[in-house]
């Protein structure tokens, strides 16, 4: 008996985590990126090269799929010029099938929030990328309400975990080498972090359960903690002190004059200057999936980058 097909666009850490969960559940998995190559995946996963901006290609690859997962994104500095077109092509392509569409989103659309963010928190973005993500989410669910697609989305906070290179380069690798780690903004304000494997599990679950359709869901995430507390857990795992330096907005702006990706971080620094906390209880209460304890997730991240 041939298992049902699940198609994932994007082979970053979230796409890969989703693929592993689906393979463990006995699903046939096809992943698509620009190169047709990807590492650290189960042998059964098919990896193809393709153009996600081509809605006919999307339709061809997803025609017989049970579910489609949109985990791809343009370069950070190309979000405002390319991201909407990418999602529009995915929606148009998937609309030619009966597949569920599960889209990876984030918290940017909420903007600043003095209370923990829930799925019911209204969009109030004040940044270019936040307004873009809010608009894209509204377009996704408008297509669902119009009956064009059957969609849901997963929103998560800043990632940590195996294969997430930004956290690896700025925090884990320096700590392993006995150097100071780099933190953004203020070290002592509460911040939510989302574990890549929990996000993958959330996406995979929603791809097999129609109860999730028609609304966004926050991926199960551990209780918010400060960056200083995050580093203290890292130090305990490593069994040695870990120093840190904080990078303020002015420093990010200066670095951004030389690196386009860093320049795009400037408007998002508000996330690291005041509490940035999400509430993911709705998903856990509905589907029974709990967040991985933060200590366990950090240890898995350390083990991955160490080995």
Describe it for me?
InterPro entries: Epimerase_deHydtase (IPR001509), Lipid_A_modif_metabolic_enz (IPR050177), NAD(P)-bd_dom_sf (IPR036291). This protein folds into two domains: 5-159 and 193-221 and 278-292, Rossmann fold (3-Layer(aba) Sandwich), CATH 3.40.50.720; 165-189 and 225-272, no CATH class. Strand 5 (100-106), helix 4 (128-145) and strand 6 form a beta-alpha-beta unit. The radius of gyration is 19 Å and the shape is globular. It is α/β, with parallel strands linked by helices and 307 residues long. The protein has helices at 13-24, 55-62, 79-94, 128-145, 165-176, 196-206, 227-238, 249-256, 260-263, 281-287, 294-306, and strands at 5-9, 28-33, 46-49, 65-70, 100-106, 150-156, 158-160, 181-184, 193-195, 216-218, 244-247. It contains eleven helices and eleven strands. The model has no long low-confidence stretch (mean pLDDT 98). Helix 2 packs across helix 3, helix 3 runs parallel beside helix 4 (128-145) and helix 7 packs across helix 11. The strands form three sheets. Strands 3-2-1-4-5-6-10 form a seven-stranded parallel β-sheet, sandwiched between helices.
What does the largest sheet look like? 7 strands, parallel
Q: Which fold name is given in CATH as the topology of the largest domain?
A: Rossmann fold
Q: Counting H and I runs of at least 4 residues, what is the number of helices?
A: 11
Helix fraction, binned, reads: 25-40%
Strand content: 15-25%
Element layout with pairings:
Elements: E1 5-9, H1 13-24, E2 28-33, E3 46-49, H2 55-62, E4 65-70, H3 79-94, E5 100-106, H4 128-145, E6 150-156, E7 158-160, H5 165-176, E8 181-184, E9 193-195, H6 196-206, E10 216-218, H7 227-238, E11 244-247, H8 249-256, H9 260-263, H10 281-287, H11 294-306
Parallel strand pairs: 1-2, 1-4, 2-3, 4-5, 5-6, 6-10, 7-9, 8-11
Helix pairs in contact: 1-6, 2-3, 3-4, 5-7, 5-11, 7-11
């Amino acid at each position: 008996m041939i298992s049902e097909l699940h198609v994932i666009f994007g082979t970053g850490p979230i796409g890969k985590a989703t693929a592993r969960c689906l393979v463990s559940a006995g699903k046939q998995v096809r992943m698509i990126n620009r190169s047709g190559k990807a590492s650290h995946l189960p042998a059964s996963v098919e990896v193809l090269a393709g153009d996600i901006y081509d809605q006919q290609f999307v339709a061809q690859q997803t025609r017989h799929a049970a579910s489609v997962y949109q985990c791809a994104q343009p370069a950070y500095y190309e979000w405002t010029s390319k991201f909407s077109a990418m999602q529009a092509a995915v929606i148009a392509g998937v609309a030619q099938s009966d597949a569920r569409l599960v889209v990876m989103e984030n918290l940017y659309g909420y903007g600043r929030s003095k209370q923990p963010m829930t799925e019911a928190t209204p969009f109030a973005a004040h940044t270019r990328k936040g307004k873009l993500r809010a608009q894209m989410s509204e377009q996704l669910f408008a297509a669902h309400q119009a009956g064009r697609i059957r969609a849901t989305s997963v929103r998560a906070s800043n990632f940590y975990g195996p294969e997430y290179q930004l956290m690896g380069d700025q925090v884990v690798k320096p700590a392993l080498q006995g150097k100071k780690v780099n933190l953004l903004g203020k070290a002592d304000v509460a911040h939510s972090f989302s574990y890549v494997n929990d996000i993958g599990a959330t996406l995979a679950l929603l791809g097999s359960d129609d109860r999730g359709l028609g609304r966004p869901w926050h991926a199960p995430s551990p209780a918010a903690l400060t960056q200083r507390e995050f580093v203290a857990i890292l130090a305990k795992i490593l069994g040695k002190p870990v120093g840190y330096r904080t990078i303020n907005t002015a420093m990010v702006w200066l670095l951004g004059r030389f690196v386009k990706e860093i320049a795009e971080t400037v408007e998002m620094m508000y996330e690291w200057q005041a509490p940035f906390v999400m509430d993911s209880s709705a998903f856990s209460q509905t589907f029974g999936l709990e967040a991985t304890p933060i200590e366990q997730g950090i240890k898995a991240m350390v083990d991955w980058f160490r080995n």
